[in-house]
Amino acid sequence: MPAKDVLSTEQIHANLLQLPLWRYGLGALRTALKCESSAAALSLFAAIGDLAQDANHHPDVDWRYDTLFVTLTSHDAGGKVTARDAALARSISSQAAVFGAVARPELLRTVEIAIDTDNAEGISTTWKTALGYKARKDGTLADPFGRGPALWFQETESPNSNRFHVDVMIPFAESAAVLEALSADGVELDYEHAPMWVVVSDAQGNRLCISTEAGRDLG
User: Fold this and answer.
1) What is the pTM for the complete model shown?
2) Are strands 28-34 and 67-72 parallel, antiparallel or unpaired?
3) Fewer CB near the last or first residue (10 Å), C or N of the chain?
4) pLDDT tens-digit profile of 98-114?
5) How is residue 29 annotated by DSSP?
6) Alpha-carbon radius of gyration of the chain
7) Burial class (CB within 10 angstroms; exposed 0-12, middle 13-18, buried 19+) of 99
8) Over the stretch 131-183, which tens digit does the pLDDT of each residue have?
9) What is the four-CA torsion angle of 35, 25, 113, 130, rounded to 10 degrees?
């Protein structure tokens, strides 16, 4: 298979079976690697950089003290997951073992902001300009440097009075614990669309969605 070939849903699942450190969410392979120290994390970061240079394929890596958050997609394939991403994920996993890093999938969170609107085109440019974001083909606005949360417009003929909500993407295997903790807090949970997403309403009526990859087309 050519390295730039976009992986199908079945191929992504098959690769994840061989990549226990990794999860899939919002179109990317992701992992959180906790090291013994900040210095060890920085050394692993450098090793990942060497792998990326050798492969001519560069992941997004966020270094936070003793933990690295790594995201893999192929920009030259429209931001999809390709065979090249899976290959680099395997190489990074090998290096993680060398440096004694431990996967912490429960730390993985990917946040998007949604705005209810009956006219997305009427407000999209305002938000794009103010945030310095770029528009994707699906109308979502994204930080070109991957630092800020994506912004998307949920089109509806009758927008909710509370037009903003946050979508939090969590690996499915970790979502039950989060929902259990929210339930214990006494908030309202709507499971109508589970497991793809569960609508959470806080004590003042503000909403967020706990979303997972389950039930979605991953390709």
Assistant:
1) 0.86
2) antiparallel
3) N
4) 999 999 999 999 999 99
5) E
6) 18
7) middle
8) 999 998 889 999 999 899 999 999 888 787 789 999 999 999 999 999 999 99
9) 80
